Amino acid sequence: MTTPALTHEYWMNYALTLARRAWDEGEVPVGAVLVYDNRVIGEGWNRSIGKHDPTAHAEIMALRQGGMVQQNYRLLDTTLYVTLEPCVMCAGAMIHSRIGTLVFGARDAKTGAVGSQMDILNHPGMNHQVQIIEGVLAPQCSALLSDFFRMRRKEKKALKIASRDPHPAAPQR
Questions:
Q1: Domains of the chain and CATH, by start
Q2: What residue stretches are annotated with the CMP/dCMP-type deaminase domain (predicted)?
Q3: What percent of the chain has pLDDT over 70?
């Protein structure tokens, strides 16, 4: 007896949990989970800062792990769930790995390569087509990113203010 397929919302919630892990590590909160036959074969969250690795995006981490689990760089019939629209590098990796489907939450107006800035996955010159489903839990995915960058701006503002006043007043008794 086979288990019923879990929903896109279920897997996107899983990816959101991974994105929160990135936040906890001081990284941009993006999470990704790679699913094959209704089970996780790869997961990742942004780790570029901590690993000093510009390629350590959530999607790349999940694809690398999936390749190891499958013992194959071709990840046919897999679905990659990502909280944010992938960048050019990650979209290219999806084509090279031959994933079947990409499901993403929020659009990325600045660097999105699946329709926002460009559309790598639907480019006619590519040798593999990836099915795309977008907008799954988009409000939750967007809110996580907005909250993170709002916090970052507050922290930077506080540091800037603190650096202007090298001798803060002593606490009053």
A1: 8-163 (3.40.140.10)
A2: 6-117
A3: 92
Residue 59 is a catalytic residue: yes
Q: Is 141 annotated as a binding residue?
A: no
Q: State the SS3 of 5-43.
A: CCCHHHHHHHHHHHHHHHHHCCCCCCEEEEEECCEEEEE
pTM as predicted: 0.90
In a 13 Å sphere around the CA of 85, the CA atoms on its Cβ side amount to: 22
Tell me the chain's radius of gyration from C-alpha atoms: 19
What pLDDT was estimated at residue 160? 84
87 is in an annotated binding site: yes
**Residue 105's pLDDT band (boundaries 50, 70, 90)?**
very high
